[in-house]
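Here is an idea for our session: we take a single protein and study its fold together. To get us started, please write out a protein record for me. Once you have written the record down, we can walk along the chain together.
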Amino acid sequence: MLRRRNRNALFKKIGFIALVLLLLWLIGRTIPYLFRADAQDDAASVVEEFYKYEQAGDFGSSWELFHPLMKERFSKSAYLQSRAHIFMQHFGVETFEFEMEKPEREFDVTVMDGVKPFPEAYKVGITMKYRSSFGQLDIVQTCYVVQDGQEWTLLWYYPGKGEEQHSSESSE
């Protein structure tokens, strides 16, 4: 009788230890996904905010969301003039609709020739739909969102010569 009680107590202890180890393993596997989901949501919100500013014609606010490399490429005044001139005046539109793909996490991303690759970035495909004086125009653009310090910032993709489009982009 005494041996049976000791054996049952031993099985209970082993079962408890196995359950605790299983829970610790599950927690360890889940924690990285929790942080990754936040980063993906943060990246998506920056892209959405950028293109909502663009929709409203608030190019100054959208420019502020650019990564410093993009700000070097376009001065604020040049960006404001170009965006308003090309899209609003030439296309004859006041706004546009846009569709955004789900951000995809990528590593060692090169967005521009001659620029050191980013260790981690979120790639987001955007389709802007303009109802213009030239008919329906769809412009597909690839964006990347990277962290610059504590801020998430946006970059456009500039493929080098001879580089093919990304597989998620359609080529016709």
About this structure: Helices lie at 2-55, 59-64, 68-73, 76-90. The chain has four helices and five strands. The two ends are 80 Å apart (CA to CA). Residues 131 and 137 are 6 Å apart (CA to CA).
